[in-house]
UniProtKB/TrEMBL annotation:
PANTHER family for the chain: POTASSIUM CHANNEL PROTEIN 2-RELATED-RELATED, POTASSIUM CHANNEL PROTEIN YUGO-RELATED
Keywords from the UniProt entry: Ion channel, Ion transport, Membrane, Transmembrane, Transmembrane helix, Transport
Organism in which the protein naturally occurs: Oceanobacillus halophilus
Cellular compartments annotated: Cell membrane
Annotated membrane topology: Multi-pass membrane protein
Residue spans crossing the bilayer: 16-37, 49-67, 73-90
BP terms from Gene Ontology: monoatomic ion transmembrane transport; potassium ion transport
GO cellular component: plasma membrane
Keyword Membrane included in the entry's annotation: yes
UniProt protein name: Potassium channel protein
Protein origin, superkingdom: Bacteria
SUPFAM superfamilies reported for this sequence: NAD(P)-binding Rossmann-fold domains (SSF51735), Voltage-gated potassium channels (SSF81324)
Length: 332
């Protein structure tokens, strides 16, 4: 039973570990043999093992040398067997390192960290956000999930890339979604608005199914899908089309004497419109009290949606209720 257990355990080990065990076993065997063949030249087994490693690795210090014919026959056998296995072991380490780097670039490796950010979707918005996060918070680990990109170089974008569909549990498990701190889902630029929003909502459902407590920030293109995204489990909704509409309106309506719209771009590039369910801690607080709390968190509260009625900048004494949706500008 014990022999079968160790045999089973051995075959479950990684190949590189099994190869290392084989190297140590063969070198130790030859060290024992040479010790008994030439006990004067190799007074201890450790001296024999040392000689075996030095000889097989072709280092050749010359501090221990077999003198008898029997000892030299042992040395020849060691060179023919042990030298090859050590060379194979070293080449295997190099091959394993290259394979790991290849798998990392192609999104095939599981992420083993925790308290990390998960970004779903690879586009210009994601690239800019990765740069901003890594510049401000270099210690934060980012996992990127995308099904369209085939390769991402870590040297260019310091993220752990996972290639696959974020609506699949196996892909989310590779991203260690259970121990992530926050998820951002961006709209798929390769699809039309309806398809992109449907995929976003499916991704929200998949993430929420794997982690019921994690905050989920989702980009939704169509206003009609905001409620569905919130029902699916999104914590915060980013309406990027709202931002673009206001920017276009500003450009179309500004007078020639007005400053060009690049000034507003610099401000709004750092913010996005957000739809968020009213947190429990803000229920029964006034609009003014909630605004002060959210401002400290980087949210500029603009108004609320209650029973499908939008109230922009209500009176300061207006009391928030459970089920309200908060409209705010969110700092990126």
């Amino acid at each position: 039973m014990t022999a079968k257990f160790f045999k089973h355990l051995y075959f479950r080990l990684p190949n590189i570990i099994k190869l290392l065990i084989s190297v140590v076993f063969i070198m130790t065997l030859f060290g024992i043999i040479i010790h008994f063949v030439e006990p004067r030249q190799f007074p201890t087994i450790f001296d024999g093992v040392w000689w075996a490693f030095v000889t097989a690795a072709t280092v050749g210090y010359g501090d221990y040398v077999p003198l008898t014919s029997s000892g030299r026959i042992v040395a020849i056998s060691l060179i023919l067997t042990g030298g090859g296995i050590i060379a194979f072991y070293i080449s295997s380490i190099s091959s394993e390192t290259i394979k790991k780097e290849h798998d990392l670039q192609h999104g095939k490796l599981r992420f083993k960290g925790n308290n990390h950010l998960v970004f779903i979707g690879w586009n210009e918005r994601t690239r800019q956000l990765i740069k901003t996060v890594t510049d401000i918070f270099p210690e934060v680990q980012i996992v990127l999930i995308d099904r369209t990109e085939r390769r991402i170089y870590y040297q260019e974008f310091p993220v752990h890339f996972i290639h696959g569909d974020a609506t699949e549990d196996s892909i989310l498990d590779m991203a260690n979604i259970h121990q992530a701190s926050r998820v951002l889902i961006t709209a798929d630029d390769s699809k039309n608005e309806r398809q992109a929003d449907n995929w976003t909502i499916l991704s929200v459902l998949a993430v929420r199914g794997n982690n019921k407590d994690i905050p989920i920030v989702a980009e939704v293109l169509s206003k009609v899908q905001v409620e569905n995204a919130l029902r699916a489990g999104a914590t915060t909704i980013i309406s990027s089309n709202d931002f673009m509409s206001i920017l276009f309106f500003h450009e179309l309506s500004h007078k020639k004497t007005a400053a060009p719209f690049e000034d507003i771009i610099q401000i709004l590039n750092q913010k996005q419109f957000s739809h968020t369910k009213c947190p429990k801690e803000l229920v029964d607080l006034t609009f003014l009290e909630a605004s002060s709390i959210l401002l400290k968190q980087g949210h500029l509260l603009l108004g609320i949606i209650r029973e499908k009625e939008c109230k922009i900048h209500p009176p300061t004494g207006f009391v928030l209720k459970e089920g309200d949706i908060l409209l705010s500008l969110l700092d990126w």
